[in-house]
Amino acid sequence: MGKVLYCFNIIDYDHKDTIVVTTLVFGRNMMDQQAGLLRLGIFATILVVMAMWEAFMPYRPAGGLRNPGRWLTNFGLLLMGAALTRFTIGAAMIAAAILAGQQGWGVINQAENLIGLPEWLSGLIAIVALDCAVYWQHRLTHIVPVFWRFHRVHHCDIEFDVSTAVRFHPFEIVASAIYKSAFVILLGADPWAVVIYESMLSGFALFNHGNVHLPGGFDRLLRRLIVTPDMHRVHHSSLIGETNSNYGNILSVWDRLFVSYVDHTKTNDHDMQIGLEEFRDKRSQSLWSVLWIPFRRS
Ligand SMILES: [Zn+2]
Q1: Contacts from 236-243 at CB under 8 Å and sequence distance 24+?
Q2: What is the pTM of this model?
């Protein structure tokens, strides 16, 4: 896979021994910086495409236009999360992958040593396994009360559009990076697989939070494989049985396999209420209020 990486120019494989040292000591390195640029480019492109799609063909009435303060909250959280990870553990997943590769740690590295997996296959396994791990991470944030305190910042948005995709408490972003880095070591994922997966993760999050609608037949076909906006909107319903469903981000198979799939909302797409009952007032929606939500008594 060295050749593919060289095409993207995201890692100098000849010097990867020194890269892991700089990653661990300084948290930044050439691969991390260029992978960051690649991810930023993909993220910005999909964000613009989805925002235009929503602006010209909104599925539900465009809530963001009625309440631009919402966007300030959601994109403010994005900037805070990005800043916090930039100065803490932003490079942790790539560092974990490089370290696991060097030490031969993790299931995939062991399998490669034993039976010599083709690189495309080990990459595909890593991406699918990471998606399963993120499904369970998401499900756990709904089950474990302390995790839910932070994750409810994402769910207390009273509208559903592309900006909802970036509405996470900064501490949840950091906790997620730690969890995924630990999983990358257990898995023995290759650094390039991590970069591709992370780019897909943010791209799919923007897509499946879009206030858009795919023609019925096409949505049905697509959601056999991936999570569509119609499928993920159910997860943002105020009805608790629907909030605790459809946890998937990229592949829809995990919700079917682990019995958390709900096909559609009990009401209808246009009348369904989005958000959490306890945080519907305007005061709970400001940037500073949502940052405090995990620490509130109720
Ligand atoms: Zn959730």
Answers
A1: 236/155, 236/157, 236/160, 236/164, 236/274, 236/275, 237/265, 237/272, 237/273, 237/274, 238/272, 238/273, 238/274, 238/275, 238/276, 238/277, 239/265, 239/266, 239/273, 242/266, 243/142, 243/155, 243/276
A2: 0.87
